Automatic annotation (TrEMBL):
<dbReference type="InterPro" id="IPR026992">
    <property type="entry name" value="DIOX_N"/>
</dbReference>
<dbReference type="Pfam" id="PF14226">
    <property type="entry name" value="DIOX_N"/>
</dbReference>
<comment type="pathway">
    <text>Phenylpropanoid metabolism.</text>
</comment>
<dbReference type="GO" id="GO:0016706">
    <property type="term" value="F:2-oxoglutarate-dependent dioxygenase activity"/>
</dbReference>
<dbReference type="GO" id="GO:0046872">
    <property type="term" value="F:metal ion binding"/>
</dbReference>
<dbReference type="InterPro" id="IPR027443">
    <property type="entry name" value="IPNS-like_sf"/>
</dbReference>
<feature type="domain" description="Isopenicillin N synthase-like Fe(2+) 2OG dioxygenase">
    <location>
        <begin position="153"/>
        <end position="241"/>
    </location>
</feature>
<protein>
    <recommendedName>
        <fullName>feruloyl-CoA 6-hydroxylase</fullName>
        <ecNumber>1.14.11.61</ecNumber>
    </recommendedName>
</protein>
<dbReference type="Pfam" id="PF03171">
    <property type="entry name" value="2OG-FeII_Oxy"/>
</dbReference>
<comment type="similarity">
    <text>Belongs to the iron/ascorbate-dependent oxidoreductase family.</text>
</comment>
<dbReference type="GO" id="GO:0002238">
    <property type="term" value="P:response to molecule of fungal origin"/>
</dbReference>
<keyword id="KW-0560">Oxidoreductase</keyword>
<keyword id="KW-0408">Iron</keyword>
<dbReference type="GO" id="GO:0009805">
    <property type="term" value="P:coumarin biosynthetic process"/>
</dbReference>
<dbReference type="InterPro" id="IPR044861">
    <property type="entry name" value="IPNS-like_FE2OG_OXY"/>
</dbReference>
<keyword id="KW-0223">Dioxygenase</keyword>
<feature type="domain" description="Non-haem dioxygenase N-terminal">
    <location>
        <begin position="6"/>
        <end position="94"/>
    </location>
</feature>
Length: 290
């Protein structure tokens, strides 16, 4: 039978079995889907509809009213060999007030609601993942490190006239996209298709969490394949350390005498390195290796 990424029912998230499933998925796949997560279906539908009717052209980088609102059509055009077949609106969340003023009216309410609803789920998942790392309470400092900055992207993938000549989104380990997603299985290096499940949330471990867990939770490569038959959208939410945070293996993880695999890195330096090159798989996380 074909291998599949885990699908986890979160309706009883206090149950130890659920917690174990989440941690096992983060350690062996770095990528999993959750169902019965508590984000209302209506919130999904609203943000999908908003993505379809967003006024992206108005927010091209050179005339955006805020550096936290960006429109783009590829990852790093200068560094890419094949142009990605998508455009996106990227919204960096600072506060509700800032978003109300600067985010496009056509989608700001829906995207803010999606962030609010998803935040509860993200916190639950992080509590479970941290407990596996001997951290029983996420204090303010840790919360900042784990989810101090948030970004939401409204991605639109038009029908592609020559899907064999483009990539939907290049293979990379640190962002997530909708449509035909494939993940690279760690032990075999083979690409595994992630079948979409209606109403599910797709979760992936990001590089910062791999570094903080000293390599226990895995950030794995994934890619999206362009389609010649239909357009698609995806609305990923990214949670990261703040740019001024210094990330490295958490003290609690190293308490038992485990050797650190990663150095302490200023997160803004890490991000600069990530965006300075095209999508080339896992090379970014090597930047933090000791």
């Amino acid at each position: 039978s074909e291998e599949c990424t885990p699908v986890i029912d979160m309706s009883h998230w206090h149950d130890q079995k659920v917690a174990d499933s989440v941690c096992d998925a983060a350690e062996t796949w770095g990528f999993f889907q959750i169902v019965n997560h508590g984000v209302p279906l209506g919130v999904f539908e609203d943000v999908k509809e908003a993505t379809h009717r967003r006024e992206v052209e108005v927010f091209k980088k050179e005339n955006s009213p805020s550096s936290n609102v960006r429109f783009g059509t590829s990852f790093t055009p200068e560094a890419e060999k094949a142009l990605e077949w998508k455009n996106y609106l990227s919204l960096f969340y600072v506060t509700d007030d800032e978003a109300s003023i600067f985010w496009p009216p056509v989608c700001k309410n829906q995207t803010q609601e999606f962030i609010r609803s998803s935040e509860l789920v993200i916190k639950k998942l992080l509590q479970v993942l941290m407990r596996r790392l001997n951290i029983n309470e996420i204090d303010e400092e840790k919360e900042s490190m784990l989810m101090g900055s948030k970004r939401i992207n409204l991605n639109y993938y038009p029908i592609c006239p020559n899907p064999e000549l483009t990539i939907g989104v290049g293979r990379h380990s640190d962002t997530i996209s909708g449509g035909s997603i494939y993940v690279r299985k760690m032990d075999t290096d083979s690409w595994v298709h992630v079948p979409p499940i209606s109403g599910s949330l797709l979760i992936n471990v990001r590089d910062a969490l791999q570094i903080m867990s000293n390599g226990r939770h895995k950030s794995i490569e994934h890619r999206m394949v362009a389609s010649g038959s239909n357009s698609r959208i995806s609305v990923p939410i990214f949670v990261n350390p703040r740019p001024a945070d210094v990330t490295g293996p958490l003290a609690e993880v190293l308490e038992s005498g485990e050797e650190p695999m990663y150095k302490q890195v200023l997160y803004s330096d890490y991000v600069k390195h990530f965006f300075s090159k095209g999508h080339d798989g896992k090379d970014t996380v090597e930047f933090a290796k000791i």
